[in-house]
Amino acid sequence: MSEERETRLLMISPNSMLTPDQLVRSIHAMNKEVKVKETCYGCLVEGRRDIVKEVLCQVRKKYTNEVFSKRRAYPAGDPRRCRAQHGTRPGYCQLEAEWALLSNVQYGLECADRGETVEQTPVKGPFSVRDFKRICEE
Amino acid sequence: MKVFIDPPNSLVLFDIVERFGHEPLSAMAAIQEKIDNLEIDMPPMNMTLDDVVRGLKYAGVEVPSGIRGRLAMWGPMIEEADAAIIMDDAPYSFGCVGCERSNEMLKYLIKKRNIPILHVVYPSDEEDAKNFVISAKEFLEGLSK
Question: Which ipTM did the prediction report?
Answer without folding.
Answer: 0.88
